[in-house]
Structures are given as C-alpha cells and as structure tokens.
Amino acid sequence: MKRHRASSAAFISTYPPRQCGIATFTKDLTKAFNRIPKNPFKTKIVAMNNSHSKYIPYPSEVKLKIRDNVLGDYSRAARKINRRKSIKIVNVQHEFGLYGGKYLNYLTAFYEYIHVPVVTTFHTVIPNPPESLKCTVKYIAKKSACIIVLTKTAVKILEKDYGIRKSKIKLIPHGIHNVPFEPSKIQKSKLGLEDKLIISSFGLVTGGKNYEAVIKALPKIVKKYPNLLYLILGRTHPGIYKQEGEKYRNKLKKLIKKLKLENNVKFVNKYLKQKELLQYLRASDVFVSSGLGLHQIVSGTLSYAVGCGRPVITIPFLHAKELITKDRGILVDIGDSKSYAKAVIKLLSNQKLRERMSKNAYKASRFMLWDNVVKSYMEVFKKYT
CA-CA distances (angstroms) from residue 295 to 50, 82, 87, 163, 374? Predict the structure, then answer.
C-alpha cells in the first residue's frame, strides 16, 4: 500500500499520566517514532482506562479511550478506527491486567471488528498456559498481522506452548535511553551522595518485589561497608495502594528499624520521571533486582539498569538469564539473603570487576536503544501497510 504523508499508526495501551510500566513504554516508543526524520506514520494513542478511574487529563495525542471492563468500548473503538482512513496500522500493547474479561477476552472483541492490520506486542508470555488462556492468545495471534515479543525466550514459548509459527513472530527488545557511559561518582555528586556506596532497586513497590530479602542481607554488608546506601526507588503500585495503602512499605520500615539500618536504606517514594530515574541508576554502583517470580519474561527496570552500564545482581528469572551473563552481573538464589550479601560484597570489594561488568553491560545493550527499537517497529509497520 502506498503511504500518504498523513498516514497514522494507532497504539492501544495505557498512557501517561497513568502510572504503569506499559504506559511509560508506549510513551517512550511513540516519542522515538516522532523523532524519525520523514516519519511516514503519525502516532495516535487509544488509551486504556480503568473503568472506576476519575477523569484523567491526557495529552493531545490521545484520540480515543477504552474503559477496560466495558465490553462495548472495544468494538466501538475498532469501528472508529476503521472510519479514520488515515490510520493504516494498529499496535496493541498487550499485558495481562490492562484489558477486561478473563484472560483479556474482552480484547478479542476489538480484533473481531477491526479491519486495519494489527501488530500485537506481547509483554508477558506465560509458559504452560491453561487451555482458556492458550485459546485467547492463539486467537489474538491469528487476528494479528504480526506478533512482537521482547525476548528470545518469549519466541520459544509462543512456538512450543501456543503453536504459533515462528514466521509470524518478530523479536524486538525492550528499549533503553541513550545516556553517556560514566562512573557513578558524577551523578552521586549531583545528588549529594558522593560519600556513599550505592546499591539500588527500582519499580512500583509491591510485596512481589521481595525487598526484605535484600534488606536482610545488609547487616553483613554494612559491617564491611558502613557507608553503604540501599535506594528503593518508586512509589507503591497504585492498585496495591488502593487495596491496602502502605502496608508492605511499612513492613519494610519495621524490618529496617529492627536491623538498625535507618542510615543505610532510603525510600524514594514517588513515581520517578525519566530524568530522575536515570540519574539514580547512573549514581548506583550496583543494581539489584529481587523478586519472587522466575517466569518474568521481560523487565524494563533490568533493561534500564544494563543500559546505564550498571552491574546487576538478580534472581534468575527468564529475562535475567538471557540478559545478565557472567561478565555483566551475578545471578543469585531467589529469596536467599546470604546470596545477595555475598554477591554485593564481591562487587563492592573489586572495583576492577565492577568497572569491567559496567563496560560490558553498556556495550552489550546498545542495540536496545529506543532509536534502534523504533526502526524495527517501522520495518514491521511498513511491511503490513
């Protein structure tokens, strides 16, 4: 199809000011699209709304909204897109929990009515799925012109467990921001933390982060490095906060007090803007990814840390095993505080090893830059329009 200058690509996703990883991902992706010279596609957003949310002041690029638990909104959105002749392709950012119905089956209504080619990005691919989930994912794949996944492991799972042919799947990694490679002391001085050895963790705070396993490792580390500071970056997940407030964070604070670590742990309890997040990551000597689940297929926080050239200590979840080789970081046992302590001390006591891992992580992640990611998306979009 010959593309007119006014051709558009519509992205169905959560979107800022909603605070979630997929919203941030889509904002970064579309910003990268808009940076491309002579970009053949204008970007338009179809924002996913929580049905119970109050008014959300979206920016002008949001053209339509879908209430997640209102089935009729999905078919209505499809019909509206069909009528907008400038929209040549749709990209659905697929994540469990964003769309209504069991296993997102409300979303299938959109695919049923849409006439424009759809490219679906799967952020989560669940291995060994129950039959109902498998059927929904296979239906979405059948209705999609192309499936995008973010890791090699996701490709294998879609082939093996869902029977989706490899020719329909495109691997495009999670994007990262282009920051200069530099030692942590530069950003530490800007934050007034130049006298600290910093380890950090980042993400919307939930019990699933298992930060207590890291905190319990700190007394042994602090004994050797009393100037250690553990930064826990991010606000409590909005959904969790609505249900139970700061219950989990308060539990962590009690543990910190019990272990007399008040001077060694700091919460940055807010939803960090991109510039703030990257500054904290670049000020870190080591990034720590804890958690309780080993089946996580992709992690934006892990990608960002590697993109900033930081050595990583992480549990061996699926994305970590793919991204964190032994020359970029250390894999530790899930929930094992002794493993965390041993790994942190190993890195803090060996500056040359830390620097080598930093350089390796930074160099190995350049293909993940948003400008490279968006070129791959552009190739897919052009192929199907």
Answer: 26, 37, 36, 19, 26
Q: Are strands 87-94 and 62-67 parallel, antiparallel or unpaired?
A: unpaired
pLDDT at 280: 98
The DSSP line for 110-139 is HHHH--S-EEEEES---SS--HHHHHHHHH
CATH code linked to domain 184-367: 3.40.50.2000
| pTM as predicted | 0.93
Using alpha carbons, select from 215, 207, 199, 217 the residue that is nearest to residue 313: 199
Q: Which of 217, 259, 190 is nearest to 348 (CA)?
A: 217
DSSP 271-288: ---HHHHHHHHHH-SEEE
What per-residue confidence (pLDDT) applies to 293? 85
Half-sphere exposure for 245 (CA within 13 Å, toward CB) = 3
- pLDDT of the residue at 55: 82
At 91, the amino acid letter reads N
Ranges under pLDDT 50 in the chain? 1, 3-4
The pLDDT value recorded for residue 5 is 54
Where are the chain's structural domains?
A: 8-175+369-383, 184-367
Cis peptide before 37 (omega within 30 of 0): no
The strands making up 118-122's β-sheet, listed across from edge to edge, are 62-67, 42-49, 8-13, 87-94, 118-122, 146-149, 169-171
User: Looking at the domain 8-175+369-383, which fold is it?
Assistant: Rossmann fold (3.40.50)
Contact between residue 161 and residue 295 where contact means Cβ atoms under 8 Å apart? no
State the pLDDT at residue 1: 45
